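Entry 12.
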Amino acid sequence: MINFKRDKYGVGTIILDMDDRKVNIINHQVAKIWQPLLDFLEDNVKQGVLKGVIITSAKNSFLAGGDLDYLHKTKRAEDVYQHTATLRAIFRRIENMGIPFVAAINGAALGSGYELALACHYRIALDKPKTLIGLPEVTLGMMPVGGAIARLTRLLGFEKAFNILSVGKQMHVKEALKRSLIDEIVPDEIEMLIRANEWIHSNPDFRKPWDKPDYVLPKSQDPTWLPTAKEISVINARIVKKTRNNYPAIQSIFNSMIEGLYLTFDASTRIESRYFTSLVMSSDCRNLTQAYWYDINRIKSGMSRPQGYSRFKVRTITIIGSGKMGSGIAYLAALRGITVYMKDVSLSTAQQGKAMVENRLKRIVKAQKMTEGQMNEILAFVKPTDSFEVIKESDLIIESVFESETLKRRIIKDVHKYMHSDAILATNTSTIGISNLATSIKNPENYVGLHFFDPVTKIPMIEVIKGEQTSEETVAKAFDFARQIKKIPIIIKDSLAFYTTRISRVYILEAFNMLLEGHSAAAIEQAAIQAGMKYPPLFLADAIGLQNILALEEKVIGIFGDIYKKLKGVEVVERMVHDFDRRGMNSGDGFYSYNNGKKEYLWRELSDHFPMSNDKLDQNTVMERLLFVQCLEAIRCMNAGMIATSEEANLGSIFGAGFADFKGGVLQYINDYGIDAFNRRANELAELYGWQFMPPKPFAAFAEEM
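Predicted 3D structure (tokens):
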């Protein structure tokens, strides 16, 4: 599990090689193994036979961090705190053994893995694509706990350290070197070990600054010094604005940094352990871990992928439509080495699409995360064309044109003439039924929906839409393509508006309902932000386009007729479009006024047309109304068989509809609220505000299975 050897010059090497795991971790069991090893090393130091130690790994990665299963399942705060105390003790013994330690980082060093490297006196990293450095704990509602907060604050200064600790970014070694997280980069493992040995022999008495007897905290890190105090107050205000007090991990990191600077180094690390333990035992942390670790990994592993079909690897695709969405898909595919034909009505239009891909890549080159040579290699995969003939070479064709059923039908018919029998055809759409469009082709079993989200390069999810005649094999192929371009696929049964659009729809309409009731537009928007929604509802409506929202409501009425229970809020969008000719962000005016696509302020005449009532709702009620309608709509979607798993329902709501991620998604929100309490509250809201809050009849039985 941990191997040790010593050369004739007195340099020892610790090789991490955890049994029965692809990656090394430090959990409560592994931590115990370090104690006798450190005892042995300290004895060697006393005997004068050990001059320094290199820590490296026998695996492709260095050390991936802690054991989330243990932390997620533990019920006792005392156990969590004791584990952190053991971890801190290991790192401090390394730091204070009296000989230099060098971390030879041959792969990813994340979380506790980077903390181990940070406890060493020098860090050398191997320059390869998968060598990532970072402290991602905050993305799961946690914080580093092995002393990284105290170390980075003292090494980098308050602001630089906070900007790293509070974001949780995993960065490549070149960026890590630039930000002083590592000390050196080498091209190969032999060079890495040579340099590690050289550094040890050149620095036999190296000590960390805070372990030297004459260490004094620099003024720039002293919270009692006025300029530092001002800097701290500015950062604190920024935290509150960003988190709305919904992400305690960020505030806990901030507090640990400040409080730790008043104390000795060892006392400051104990502060970290207390905050960490509190976070791990909180529901927000467990919700974030559930969503961003367990749910994501279950989906990535193929839990919803149709079984029995070999893995499908796309080599060549054709994208019909080279606009913002089409060029974004082309960019993602080219990054993975897929040949992309960009087909449009003219060669010049298609070339404009390639230019958009090039502009994205140039920004990466400018940030020094890619060379011009690498950019040109990627661009070579993108081939503009105005010919349908290229479709004959393609494994996958993605139609990504304007959301018009007539236009999509025409293109589908043209594409079908050139497809080979094993190719699949996908439509990028958010509302148009796949089964309906499939009537345009002879082999609908090869036809599937791929709903990409805007901005396509940033939102990590795709809805794979299965039509009535789409084969299981085609769904499996679409799933595999999504994973090939590093997207998270959720599988949706074809129905009106699809899953994420339905979740967003009820969220927006409930805001419209409250606007009609006389509640302040600004208060509604602020309540949504406070509730943790990524986008406030009126702004989201503008971004989608008010005419598109109205078109969807008209489509619903056309399909369901008298059965459709029209929400009063639909009146708002009808008036905005027909009476006021305000259509949303793209037209420059909707609920907000825009300048060159940038939001400026809420429409100043909004309260004239939708006057405010004296009977105002409290903020908590507004928040619950906005969140409950989404949760209840998710249950209706699951009852209808539109979406099959709670993991997909939760992540679909977070990534596709911007639901509060610290609640873990729509179904996890119900669990967190309490199933019985949620049911009671939903019935109360239904009596007060309408049928949309009425829990579906099989709610209790369904909720028990979540």
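Annotation: The chain has a mean pLDDT of 92. The two ends are 38 Å apart (CA to CA).
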